[in-house]
Design goal:
By secondary structure, the chain is mainly α. It has two domains: 1-28; 31-92, Arc Repressor Mutant, subunit A (Orthogonal Bundle), CATH 1.10.10. It is 54% helix and 6% strand. A two-stranded antiparallel sheet has the order 1-2. A hairpin with a 7-residue loop joins strand 1 (65-67) and strand 2. It is elongated, with a radius of gyration of 17 Å.
C-alpha cells in the first residue's frame, strides 16, 4: 500500500470514529429518547419525517415505539432501539 492509500484509509476510519462518537455521546447526556421531540432532535429530522418513517415501517411498532391508548400518535419510543437505529442508519438520515 502506498503512503497516500494509507492516509486515505486512516482518514476514512477517523470519520467513522467521529460519527460513532457523536452517536455514543448521547448515552452520557441526561436526556431520554422517549418522546417525539427528543427522537426528532436526536435523529436530526422533522416531525413529518418521523411520522413518515413510522408510516413506511422504517420504525416499527413494538420494536422502536409503543402506541399508548390506541391513539394515533400517542407514542413512547424505546431508547435503545432508537440508538441502534441511528447507529445502523446514520448515513441515510
Amino acid at each position: 500500500m502506498s503512503m497516500e492509500e494509507n492516509i486515505e484509509l486512516i482518514l476514512e476510519k477517523l470519520k467513522k470514529l467521529e460519527k460513532d462518537f457523536e452517536i455514543l455521546k448521547f448515552d452520557n447526556e441526561s436526556k431520554k429518547l422517549t418522546n417525539i421531540k427528543e427522537v426528532t432532535d436526536y435523529l436530526n429530522i422533522s416531525k413529518t419525517t418521523l411520522y413518515n418513517m413510522i408510516k413506511d415501517n422504517r420504525l416499527k411498532q413494538n420494536v422502536h415505539y409503543i402506541k399508548s391508548n390506541k391513539k394515533r400518535y400517542n407514542l413512547t419510543f424505546i431508547e435503545s432501539a432508537i440508538i441502534d437505529y441511528k447507529r445502523v442508519n446514520y448515513e441515510n438520515i
